[in-house]
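User: I'm writing a short report section on ligand binding and want a predicted complex to refer to. Could you take this sequence and S-adenosylmethionine and write out the structure as tokens? A short remark afterwards would be nice.
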Amino acid sequence: MSRLNQHLLTFAKVLASQAIVFAGFLLFYKLGGRLPLGVPMLLLLQGALAAIIGRLFGLWSFWMPIQLILPLATVYNEVVPGWAYAAAFVASALVFWNGTAEQVPFYMSNRRTFAALSGLLAETKATRAVDLGSGVSGVVTFLARKHPLSLIDGVETAPLLVAISKARVFIGRLANARILYRSLWDVDLGGYDLVYCFLSPVPMPRLYEKAKAEMRPGTLLVSNSFAVPGVAPERVISVDDARQTRLYLYRM
Ligand SMILES: C[S@@+](CC[C@H](N)C(=O)[O-])C[C@H]1O[C@@H](n2cnc3c(N)ncnc32)[C@H](O)[C@@H]1O
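Assistant: Sure. The structure tokens for the complex follow:
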């Protein structure tokens, strides 16, 4: 599924979950049911139920607070203060930091991909691995938990994502995980047995050149979804997930 379709599917799930709850309320009221709640509380209830349905549809938990306040903000849009929109804008800038300059947006690997990477770590007996552009550290924290004897690094430059990741590593007491607030272009890849990335087509040729120059012979570069143009991967792993993730493996 293309990225655009994935985004459209996400928005469709948000709208569908709100619509399902709304239709349920309409039916309930039509059948004579009444809830002892004022309009604002009803709107919050609508948002809360939609948030739960959204999760059942597979939406990421990030959407839950948005789903919760969506009906209230839509109905009372004139009372939402201006600073709330400014804050939302700043927060999204701190998350989607690399979308424009690096042409790498923020989206996340899923749990089946985590599991496939964990299998690769075991198979290659990698003791040091890095996720270049580690987002909210899903890969890093998963691998650090599964492989307590390996050192797992995450490299990220989006400030809010770095803060969230550092908090996750701290709260999870993951002594074998590190989050580096640094551009992936400034990281020496020579110390890693496995380098993982999930970026975009744009940086792949440059990243492959960097990996070739710095990584030791026999080590692995693993790219989620984006192949290096003109270079045959040693192997392609098809992850059994909804978006049919492909992992491209390049042996140095
Ligand atoms: C598609 S997301 C992948 C997140 C994570 N690796 C995962 O699989 O869940 C790509 C991430 O790379 C980060 N990124 C893009 N360019 C970067 C750079 N030059 N240095 C560090 N991180 C970068 C973005 O901020 C974004 O969080």
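A remark for your report: Residues 3 and 9 are 10 Å apart (CA to CA). The domain at 111-251 is CATH 3.40.50.150 (Rossmann fold).
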